[in-house]
Amino acid sequence: MEVFKEMVKWGHEQVLFTREETVGYLGIIAIHDTTLGPALGGCRLWKYESEEEALVDVLRLSMGMTYKAAVAGLNLGGGKSVIIGDPDMPRREMIFRAHGRAVETLKGRYITAEDVGTSVEDMDYVHMETEHVVGIAGRSGDPSPVTAYGTYRGMKACALEKYKDDSLKGKTVAVQGVGHVGYYLCENLAAEGAKLVVTDISEEKVARCVEDFGAEPVGTDEIYEVDADIFAPCALGAIVNTETIPKLKVDIIAGAANNQLATREDSKAVQEAGILYAPDYVINAGGLINVYSELADWSTDRSKRKAGEIYQTLLEVFELAREQKMTTADAADRIAERRIDTVGKLHRSRSD
Description:
The chain has 352 residues and is α/β, with parallel strands linked by helices. Helices cover 45% and strands 15% of the residues. The chain has two domains: 3-64 and 76-127, Leucine Dehydrogenase, chain A, domain 1 (Rossmann fold); 144-285 and 311-337, NAD(P)-binding Rossmann-like Domain (Rossmann fold, 3-Layer(aba) Sandwich), CATH 3.40.50.720.
């Protein structure tokens, strides 16, 4: 793989590769765009099959963060980092201190946070080496509850668009992945009276949702064929694809996972199937809003109110999609690009 060609393809400003042999740290930090502000995005620890797979993942994810921040109205650019390794590794301090040192070399151009395979405790280790980290203990902490709340509000906007009523009471929601975000999403949905069908690779997490919310458990592959109103992907990405779309028996796809579409063409296939798609980086922006609160010194209540605005943002996306006869994914991109372009053209006043 030719790295510079990939950077041009995705529109990236910078990619940093770091190796710390003494602790086995292999990390990639991707900065996509800093027009709106410093690049902020979580650190993913994953057992990638190859270095190329890790690079493609970090490039896609960081680009998504640029668009997510822009649509959410935050003064942030897009970045992401990945560490190649076992997410279940027991001794983690030195790996994440090494990551903190890599982040520190960028002098604030990139701000890291937790993501898949990482935790608040891991970010505390990162903080030992750099101030350019959010989501640490004693500050905004775990972003999962706010991410879930924003996703829940976005789901209600989808219901309004599809059914002309935003109530989720009595609606069946198939939730794929009931880890931190998925669990809190189920909590919000159950409180409104939605019926839950859940799956996860962890039987323990599924059992918890069954016990706490009366959810119906299904196998990991069976979730795509559940007869439901809404499909909520809350695990890893690329699960909406040519194989799964024909299986779906839902009206809406609205979940917290990143990069849900395997390819751009899949957004057209979803639309042609009569399914309303909530662009992932719009509906799951609550986590980014939560960690941004540390930088902006927002209260927890203000962060939650901001995440609640995802409802109105999605309605704007749907309206533009209707008016311009485009997919909702294209409409979300148009809104994000418009804000980045406008801010990029602003002239700063000079004091000299």
